[in-house]
Amino acid sequence: MVLKIGVIGTGAIGKDHIHRITNTLNGGEIIAVTDVNPEQAEAVVETENLNAEIFKDGHALIQSPNVDAVVVTSWGPTHEEFVLASIAAGKPVFCEKPLATTAEGCKRIVDAEVESGKQLVTVGFMRRYDQGYRALKKTIKENQIGTPLMLHCAHRNQNAPAFHGDMPITDSFVHEIDILRWLLQDDYVSVQVIQPRRTRFANDGMQDSYMILLETKEGIRIDAEVFVNCQYGYDVQCQVVGDTGIANLPEPASVVVRKDAKLSSDILTDWKPRFIDAYDVEIQEWIDATLKGEMNGPSAWDGYVVSVTVDACLEAKNSEKIIPIDLPECPSFYREAKVEV
Ligand code: NAI
Ligand code: NAD
Ligand code: ISE
């Protein structure tokens, strides 16, 4: 059986997901696409040689009886309306982060999904499918480093020419917010955001970098650097300090060269190759689960928790205070869901 998929938004990651579904993965076929910029949708149909209908907008695509499931890879501000429309149509939907650009928007999605009585939404937090993060979580779960006490993390992009405003937090740091609570099986209680001296490579008016301090319910302290114009490469770091040992997120595989009195290895420059395997596993697991009528990836609730935490980060940044993070209790609808990845 093949899952007939419609993709809304054929930009950078939309094209990537279409490519992997068409050429690398099994069980899915792209039969519908749309983009606010129609030439972009036409181009991907041609490049990937798709047998796909081009719809005038995302709503027409969702309504099509030929579309079994929806992938939302348009700009963040459009996600909420397309996810809500997919829920209303009773169709499974994979939505790239952010689920919505406000916590209220995410809550509307959570409420609509609970009301529909069926879990339909998966959010694109692909780090949960990364072998390195999975190995790190196993190390913690097996008690190899004892009880986690603190984490030192960094999210560095080589550069971010299209970034403005709070995007280092709303577009990049969201991945740490999701992955660290997944890694620790814990939730956040407070955040402080420190703004170091600004790099001269940041776009006008944008702060870069940040030092973000989170505290969890269990009292674990996290310091995370977000630096999206670091110049030297794309680099994601995570070190967990336990009471009997320390565990690091593995580095991506790279040949180590000894030459000219130097020991060196390459550093990646882009997020695409860094997480390519994770994206493949993420979308394959989504296709497989959807065909079985199941849902086991990051949920709408996870998307909501990230959004509430982002809001607290922004308040902490603007007020320069430590801001509490208050989360309502997770609805039983999500707690009783199948095994989470
Ligand atoms: P992009 O700007 O390259 O692509 C967005 C596409 O959406 C564009 O082609 C645009 O024309 C289209 N679009 C915008 N509004 C639309 C609408 N109303 N209807 C249909 N199409 C519309 O952006 P990119 O980098 O592909 O990012 C898209 C989403 O994916 C973002 O939410 C971003 O945060 C997320 N993303 C996630 C990544 C991850 O690691 N999980 C990596 C990169 C992006
Ligand atoms: P992009 O700008 O390259 O692509 C977005 C596309 O959406 C564009 O082609 C745009 O024309 C289209 N679009 C915008 N509004 C639309 C609408 N209403 N209907 C249809 N199409 C519309 O952006 P991107 O880098 O591909 O990012 C897209 C999303 O993916 C973002 O939410 C981003 O956060 C997320 N993303 C996630 C990761 C990740 O690592 N998980 C990486 C990159 C992007
Ligand atoms: C991008 O949108 C992503 O989601 C990448 O995973 C992230 O590392 C990058 O900073 C974002 O711009």
TrEMBL record:
GO terms for biological process: inositol catabolic process. Involved in the oxidation of myo-inositol (MI) and D-chiro-inositol (DCI) to 2-keto-myo-inositol (2KMI or 2-inosose) and 1-keto-D-chiro-inositol (1KDCI), respectively. It catalyses: 1D-chiro-inositol + NAD(+) = scyllo-inosine + NADH + H(+); myo-inositol + NAD(+) = scyllo-inosose + NADH + H(+). It comes from Oceanobacillus oncorhynchi. One of its GO terms (molecular function) is nucleotide binding. Its EC number is 1.1.1.18, 1.1.1.369. Pathway: Polyol metabolism; myo-inositol degradation into acetyl-CoA; acetyl-CoA from myo-inositol: step 1/7. Pfam families: GFO_IDH_MocA, GFO_IDH_MocA_C. SUPFAM superfamilies: Glyceraldehyde-3-phosphate dehydrogenase-like, C-terminal domain, NAD(P)-binding Rossmann-fold domains. Residues 137-321 form the Gfo/Idh/MocA-like oxidoreductase C-terminal domain. The keyword Coiled coil does not apply. Homotetramer. The gene is iolG_2. It comes from the Bacteria. Keywords: NAD, Oxidoreductase. Residues 3-125 form the Gfo/Idh/MocA-like oxidoreductase N-terminal domain. This is Inositol 2-dehydrogenase/D-chiro-inositol 3-dehydrogenase. It is an enzyme of class 1 (oxidoreductase). The keyword Electron transport does not apply. Belongs to the Gfo/Idh/MocA family.
